[in-house]
Amino acid sequence: MRWSCFKPWRRSPSASVKSTVVEEMGKLSSLSPDHDQEPGKKPFSSADNNNNKDREGSSSPRFREFTLEELSVATEGFSASNIVSEHNEKVPNIVYEGTLNDGKKIAIKRFQKLSWPDASEFIEEAQAVGKCRSQYMVSLVGCCSEGQERLLVAEFMPNGTLAKHLFHWEKRPMKWDMRLKVAVHTAKALEYCNDMGIDLYHDLNTYRILFDKAGNPRLSCFGLMKCIREGKSYSTNLAFAPPEYLRQGIVIPESSLFSFGTLLLDLMSGKHIPPNHALDLFRGKNYLVLMDSALDGQLSDDDRTELIHLASRCLKTEPEGRPSLKLLLSALSGLKTVKGENTPAPSYNKTSTKQPSRLTPLGEACSRMDLGGIHELLEKLGYGEDDVAVTNEFSFQMWTGDMQENADYKKHGDAAFRAKDFETAIEFYTEFMSGAPAVSPTVLTRRCLCYLMSDMFSEALSDAMQAQVVSPECSTPLYLQAACLLKLGMEAEAKEALQHGSALEAF
């Protein structure tokens, strides 16, 4: 089974930060932008890197090779307490916060063992990314390749991710001018990378955008390298992956534009809405539902309409229908911020303690991996409104006599499901779906549970994902994905799926 992580991204003076923001940021633990080379380490980069300047005018840290011992000491032996990513010690490709001997902080991404079998390829690609120096990006300052270990080292951004401040704010929601700044900086970062010859960015999402000590958004450099040398390009929920990745398992430069569209959805709504659901709202002209009520009065109706138009174009199914980065930047630059508003990122000085929405009984059962409870709840749910269209089409074909045999497969599958004969249910549901006129999300969710009961966790996850694609407005597939991910030992992704399901119900 393929698993998901995204690769694309100019440099110009950033807007000045107001003194009140600088004072607020100055109270926080932060990383000085000028990292010097440690004695005895030969830099990989050429001399042109010495003249690079970051957004505050200081020399950028020179790209160099670190030893595994250095990074182990910096992270207290890769301690779980130093993990700063949305992953944990059981999940590959973990990001740690580290402190070098000179007191400078770094972020370290540790790849799953054997992710990059060829050390020279890993170092070569890391060097290429290390040459990227832009005020809109987090700089890659080094790497490590020893034995089977592959690690990347970047500047440390002390003020958290966009996901934290957009979805889990504590004091106040993010204002429109900062959301617009995030969109513009991200587009400029992608344009810069394109100019540097790197036209793929892997898995662009709100966790890939971080805030520096002055509260400015920067795009993570880690997304410029794949999770593994062959293949895997997405680590987030596949419901947010570009259509070409779902169809063919590939990413192309235009894939980043699709992901930028999902970012615009997040910024305008303050929620993580699946693209399919958003497109349904676009088609139904339910624009007000898409907009975060906290933005009322902060942008004009014309700008709101333009933003929705941009997002819908980015989310086009066919890559050639998506706008270029140049067009996106031109359109975003034409959007206005409210005069007199400050532009700080919200509430950096405290970690949010806001709890996710309360889970439904099904969500609770999935979070506990209570498969018996899930079975009972799916039985009670039956075939709901999500299958009305399937049933109508199916009934017509039954009337013509063309689908009676297939109807029997479904009937026998349901009987086996009720009797908890899960292997038989899998067999009949599979036969039913092979000849059904339309995909039934309920049959998919039922077969998903049958696979879970049969310890076929990858197959179960595949069914849950397909059910979400067919019925993006329904939370059940997301909750089932969480149960599957927990069975696969992917606790961070499971937590995210639960949060998405809960948010979708609240939405």
Automatic annotation (TrEMBL):
<feature type="compositionally biased region" description="Basic and acidic residues">
    <location>
        <begin position="51"/>
        <end position="61"/>
    </location>
</feature>
<dbReference type="InterPro" id="IPR045845">
    <property type="entry name" value="BSK"/>
</dbReference>
<keyword id="KW-0418">Kinase</keyword>
<comment type="similarity">
    <text>Belongs to the protein kinase superfamily. Ser/Thr protein kinase family.</text>
</comment>
<dbReference type="GO" id="GO:0004674">
    <property type="term" value="F:protein serine/threonine kinase activity"/>
</dbReference>
<dbReference type="GO" id="GO:0009742">
    <property type="term" value="P:brassinosteroid mediated signaling pathway"/>
</dbReference>
<dbReference type="InterPro" id="IPR000719">
    <property type="entry name" value="Prot_kinase_dom"/>
</dbReference>
<comment type="function">
    <text>Serine/threonine kinase that acts as positive regulator of brassinosteroid (BR) signaling downstream of the receptor kinase BRI1.</text>
</comment>
<keyword id="KW-0723">Serine/threonine-protein kinase</keyword>
<dbReference type="GO" id="GO:0106310">
    <property type="term" value="F:protein serine kinase activity"/>
</dbReference>
<dbReference type="GO" id="GO:0005524">
    <property type="term" value="F:ATP binding"/>
</dbReference>
<keyword id="KW-0519">Myristate</keyword>
<dbReference type="Pfam" id="PF25575">
    <property type="entry name" value="TPR_BSK1_C"/>
</dbReference>
<dbReference type="InterPro" id="IPR011009">
    <property type="entry name" value="Kinase-like_dom_sf"/>
</dbReference>
<dbReference type="InterPro" id="IPR001245">
    <property type="entry name" value="Ser-Thr/Tyr_kinase_cat_dom"/>
</dbReference>
<comment type="subunit">
    <text>Interacts with BRI1.</text>
</comment>
<protein>
    <recommendedName>
        <fullName>Serine/threonine-protein kinase BSK</fullName>
        <ecNumber>2.7.11.1</ecNumber>
    </recommendedName>
</protein>
<keyword id="KW-0449">Lipoprotein</keyword>
<dbReference type="GO" id="GO:0005886">
    <property type="term" value="C:plasma membrane"/>
</dbReference>
<dbReference type="Pfam" id="PF07714">
    <property type="entry name" value="PK_Tyr_Ser-Thr"/>
</dbReference>
<keyword id="KW-0067">ATP-binding</keyword>
<keyword id="KW-0808">Transferase</keyword>
<dbReference type="InterPro" id="IPR058209">
    <property type="entry name" value="TPR_BSK1_C"/>
</dbReference>
<feature type="domain" description="Protein kinase">
    <location>
        <begin position="68"/>
        <end position="335"/>
    </location>
</feature>
<keyword id="KW-1070">Brassinosteroid signaling pathway</keyword>
<keyword id="KW-1003">Cell membrane</keyword>
<dbReference type="InterPro" id="IPR011990">
    <property type="entry name" value="TPR-like_helical_dom_sf"/>
</dbReference>
<keyword id="KW-0472">Membrane</keyword>
<feature type="region of interest" description="Disordered">
    <location>
        <begin position="1"/>
        <end position="61"/>
    </location>
</feature>
<keyword id="KW-0547">Nucleotide-binding</keyword>
